[in-house]
C-alpha cells in the first residue's frame, strides 16, 4: 500500500502550549497533532511542520504534512480532524500534496504579524494576543527604521545568542507597519527567519517608536552584527504566524 | 468625614466569570471589584454597576460607582487598582462624580456589539470573543430586517421568558451591521435593554442572514409579542458591552 502526503494549514492559540515543537516538559502543538491524527487514523502519524513557533506564539496557518494510508479525500481531513482537536487548535485547510513536498525544504515565504496595543491601559480580550505598551509610539519613525532592515543582510544582531545556525544572512522582503485604533501591527515578510528574529525586530522598532533610539540607529545595529546592540526580544504573545506561501 | 463617589469604566473578559452580578455559585465581576477595592482602600466597598452582563459576556466599558473616604484623586484610581486586579479585568478610566450620580438611574445609552465569525472554520484566538457560524450570511437581508427593530417597540418577543419586568417597551436608537474580513459585527444602541434582548436580536438576524426567515418576518415577530416567534438566543461569547454614555 502506498502512502499519500496530506498538508494541513493549522491555526492555533499558542497561549497554553510550550510551542510548536515536541518538548520533554509541556504540551506542544506537534504532540497534539501527532496524537490526534494517530488516534483518528489508527496509524502512527508523525507530522512535519514548517515553522517551530515558540511558546505563546500564535498561528493563523502553520503548514504541516503527514503521510497516511487513509483514503479520506485530502480536503476532507480538516472537517474530520477538527472534531477531535482541542478548541485552541483548528485545521483551516487540508489537501493532498506530492510525496516530495516538504514544508521546510520547499521554497516559501512567511508572513508574521507583531501586534502592539499602544494605549494607557490593556484590553483584557487582547491580553494574550498583543503586547501592551503604554508609552506613545511614533510609527513614522518606526517605518523609517524598518526600511533599513529590508533586503538581504546578516541578521546576527537580530538573532537570539547561542543559536547553532552559522549562516545568519536572511532576506526580508517587506515590513509593513499599520495603525488601527490603538493597535500597531508590524507585518514582516521573509523567506526565512532566525530564532527570535521577528520578536527582536519588534522590540527594536518599539525602542525607535518611543524615542530611545533614532531610526538611523537600526542601520548601525544591523551592521554591528552583535545581539547586544539591538532592542529587547518583544513578548511572544504579540506574535502571530499569519501565512506561509509556497512558490 | 464625607464620602466621595468614584466612577470606573471597567473592561473585562467575561469568559471565566458567572457574569457581572454577585451569584451564590461562581465568581462575578462585582465580587472581584468589591474585594479588590475593599482590600486596597481598607474600607468596605460595595460597587453599583450599570449593566449586569451575563456569564461569558465581555465589556469594554461597563460603568460602576462606589463611595469612599479615600483622598486619592479620582483619575488615579485606575492606575492604583489595576495593579491588584486579575488580568481579565482592567479599569480603563476613573473619575470623581457627583454623589447623586447613579449608573442605572441616570439617563444613558448603551452600545453593544454582537460579533459573528462567518467562515467555514473557527479561528482559535477569537473562540471566546465571537460566535462561529459557518453558513454564509447575507448581510443586506440582515440590515433590512434590523430596520424593523429601530425605534420604540414592545420587545416581548426579544426578551427571555419569565423576566419579571412588566413594561417591555424599549427604544432602539441604531442597529449597524458591519462586515470586515470574515467578521460580521452587529452594533445595537439603545437606552435600555431587556434580559437577553441583544442576543435574541442577534440570533434572529442570523436566521434572516442564512435564509431561514425573510427580512419581513422580523416585523411579524416583533408584532407577535411572543418569545417563541423569534430566533434562538445567540451565545454569550459573541456579545460585548462597548460603551455607556450618559447625557
From TrEMBL, chains A, B:
A single MF term (Gene Ontology): tRNA pseudouridine(38-40) synthase activity
Q: Which SUPFAM superfamilies match?
A: Pseudouridine synthase
Per UniProt, residues of the Pseudouridine synthase I TruA alpha/beta domain are: 11-103, 145-246
Record bears the keyword Thylakoid: no
- EC number(s) per entry: 5.4.99.12
Q: Which CDD domains match?
A: PseudoU_synth_EcTruA
Q: What keywords tag this UniProt record?
A: Isomerase, tRNA processing
List residues binding substrate.
Answer: 112
Q: Which residues form the active site?
A: 54
Indicate yes or no for the key word Isomerase: yes
Classify the source by domain of life: Bacteria
Sorted alphabetically, the Gene Ontology BP terms of this entry are: tRNA pseudouridine synthesis
- State the reactions this protein catalyses: uridine(38/39/40) in tRNA = pseudouridine(38/39/40) in tRNA
Return the InterPro entries for the record.
Answer: PsdUridine_synth_cat_dom_sf (IPR020103), PsdUridine_synth_TruA (IPR001406), PsdUridine_synth_TruA_a/b_dom (IPR020097), PsdUridine_synth_TruA_C (IPR020095), TruA/RsuA/RluB/E/F_N (IPR020094)
Coiled-coil residue windows: none
PANTHER family, A to Z: PSEUDOURIDYLATE SYNTHASE, TRNA PSEUDOURIDINE SYNTHASE-LIKE 1
Family recorded in the similarity comment: Belongs to the tRNA pseudouridine synthase TruA family.
The annotated subunit structure for this chain is: Homodimer.
Purpose: Formation of pseudouridine at positions 38, 39 and 40 in the anticodon stem and loop of transfer RNAs.
Record's protein name: tRNA pseudouridine synthase A
Amino acid at each position: 500500500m502506498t502512502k499519500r502526503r496530506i498538508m494541513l494549514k493549522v491555526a492555533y492559540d499558542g497561549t497554553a502550549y510550550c510551542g510548536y515543537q515536541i518538548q520533554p516538559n509541556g504540551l506542544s502543538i506537534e504532540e497534539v497533532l501527532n496524537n490526534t491524527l494517530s488516534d483518528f487514523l489508527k496509524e502512527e502519524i508523525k507530522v512535519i511542520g514548517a515553522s517551530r513557533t515558540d511558546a505563546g506564539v500564535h498561528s493563523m496557518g502553520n503548514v504541516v504534512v503527514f503521510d497516511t494510508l487513509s483514503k479520506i479525500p485530502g480536503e476532507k481531513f480538516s472537517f474530520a480532524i477538527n472534531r477531535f482537536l482541542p478548541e485552541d487548535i483548528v485545521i483551516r485547510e487540508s489537501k493532498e500534496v506530492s510525496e516530495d513536498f516538504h514544508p521546510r525544504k520547499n521554497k516559501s515565504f512567511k508572513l508574521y504579524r507583531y501586534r502592539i496595543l499602544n494605549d494607557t491601559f490593556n484590553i483584557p480580550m487582547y491580553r494574550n494576543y498583543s503586547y501592551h505598551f503604554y508609552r506613545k509610539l511614533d510609527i513614522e519613525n518606526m517605518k523609517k527604521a524598518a526600511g533599513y532592515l529590508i533586503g538581504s543582510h546578516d541578521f546576527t544582531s537580530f538573532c537570539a545568542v547561542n543559536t547553532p545556525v552559522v549562516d545568519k544572512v536572511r532576506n526580508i522582503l517587506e515590513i509593513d507597519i499599520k495603525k488601527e485604533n490603538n493597535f500597531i501591527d508590524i507585518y514582516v515578510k521573509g523567506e526565512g527567519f532566525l530564532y527570535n528574529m521577528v520578536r527582536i525586530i519588534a522590540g527594536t522598532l518599539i525602542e525607535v517608536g518611543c524615542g530611545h533610539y533614532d531610526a538611523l540607529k537600526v542601520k548601525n545595529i544591523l551592521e554591528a552584527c552583535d545581539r547586544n546592540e539591538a532592542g529587547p526580544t518583544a513578548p511572544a504573545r504579540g506574535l502571530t504566524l499569519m501565512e506561509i506561501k509556497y512558490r
